[in-house]
Amino acid sequence: MDLQEKVKSLLKEASVYDAHGLYKESSAACIQADEIIKTNAHLIDQHKKLLNTVSRRLERLKKKVERIENESVAYQMPNVVLDVMKNQFSSAEDPLQAALEGALVLAGFEQYESALEEFRKLMKHRSTRLVAAKNIIRCHLSKGRAAEGMDLLRHWRNSGLLRPDELAELRRYTQKFSDERGLEMELPYDDAAPRETPRDALHSASLHDRQVMDFTSVSIRISNDAGKDALCEFDIQHQSGDVLSVLVLKEETGAIAALKPGAVLDPVQCFSANAMFSGKAIVVENTPIPSGAHAGHFSIDIKIQGI
Amino acid sequence: MANINLKAREIEVKIVYYGPGRGGKTTNLEYIFKTFRKQVTGEMVSTRTEGDRTLFFDFLPMGLGKVKGYDIRVQLYTVPGQVKYASTRKMVLKDVDGVIFVADSIKARRMKNMESLKDLHLNLKDYGISILKIPLVLQFNKRDLAEEGIPLLSVSQMELDMNRQLKVPSVAASAITGDGVGPTLKACLKLTLQSLKTQMGW
Description:
- By secondary structure, chain A is of the alpha+beta class.
- Chain A has three domains: 3-70, Methane Monooxygenase Hydroxylase, Chain G, domain 1, CATH 1.20.58; 79-180, Tetratricopeptide repeat domain (Serine Threonine Protein Phosphatase 5, Tetratricopeptide repeat, Alpha Horseshoe); 198-306, Thrombin, subunit H (Beta Barrel), CATH 2.40.10.220.
- Chain A has helices spanning 3-19, 23-39, 47-69, 79-88, 95-108, 112-122, 126-142, 146-159, 164-180, 198-204, 253-258; strands spanning 217-223, 229-240, 243-248, 264-271, 276-288, 298-306.
- In chain A, α6 (112-122) packs antiparallel against α7 (126-142).
- The longest helix of chain A has 23 residues, at 47-69.
- The radius of gyration of chain A is 30 Å and the shape is elongated.
- The model of chain A is unreliable at 192-198 and 200-211 (pLDDT under 50).
- Chain B starts with a strand and ends with a helix.
- Chain B has one domain: Rossmann fold (3-Layer(aba) Sandwich), CATH 3.40.50.300.
- Chain B is built from five helices and eight strands.
- Chain B is globular and about 55 Å long.
- Chain B has helices spanning 25-35, 86-93, 110-126, 155-162, 181-200, and strands at residues 3-5, 10-18, 45-48, 54-67, 70-78, 98-104, 136-141, 170-172.
- Classes of the chains: A alpha+beta, B alpha/beta.
- The interface between A and B is medium-sized, with 29 and 37 residues.
């Protein structure tokens, strides 16, 4: 191919790459053409005009590359996109759990303002309050609004919305989050951290970051009044990561007494839709249900520690 | 594994279009949206930047009708190809049932193809999925550029680069004209449904 043709072909290539958004490849083709023209100026017609064209094109491409490299990722997406994020990336059947998963997904996609709206709603529910609080702090810190985050920590502490152990856990989380990102800030309170409770153990693991199989029921060996072991099976009412909530009827006094927070269940058998797994678990909460259809019965949370 | 609702007798399958940036993943979805109107069950949702690059994902819902009494719903996603969106790519890949890897046939993009395939392998591995086991189809896109005199990788070179160990179906395509887009999706759906049948014990 003669030089004139070679240059023409390279410039055409550059145009196609440009049209495909491949700006670096387009620049590379332009630079190649530029070098050929410069070293063979005496052989190429109108070489000055060509060099000017190439130079202008390279300048345009440079700007395009810079624009992409400096492009902000902090876009606030329209509702139709937020709905796909919330609804398609969460799989929980329980509405509250689905709302929590959806909010976590929004935060994962850096849609912090929309995530904050969802987490604020989740603060109203006891079961999601601590996770929501942590993620509200996460969103504010990620947006560079440390002061707002610290104000909220103070507010939650003074309002009594969170228990002392939850406040301590929230402070630990905030400290860890800011340390990991090299943020310098003074946290507003420094209560003596209470002894780690099973509830703390439950939240210290990033439950919602992990992929855990959905179980339908668990089977636990419990001693009856006669001192004999009996295998009791409980349907799972709700699952949040590796924490399973089971409903225990108030009449099942032996189970209620045995499943105290901190009790280690080894072995525990977990049943999914098509398999059974044997493992170890710890009881993290045992609370009477105050209202609703199951009022008076007990909600017991167990955390699976290994399968 | 696919999302199976036994009560409603529905199965939701997630197919992800993966590959290097500007390789034609969104163009594949746009063509499907325009062409397979009967199967498409909703609007295509895109998240593009001003520079026309995918920021989070594109999403397109489809329906395949019934298999063994179950309504099969398919969700097609693309990932953002740019290297800086690594965490988003991983999020979109969560719970994936089948993957279409859209490789760029342009010679100058050879390394980008291989880097992206390695990225797919690592992200799947993080979810406990082997790239050798997941339903996967390779698409060698932009074959039409040969007519414009653009230097392209030969199909045999692309097979050698990307499919030597995988040994998965591959389709030469031009997403912009639609050539090979349907066959790529069909090949992936076929593999995904076969895998689903095995999982369901059908």
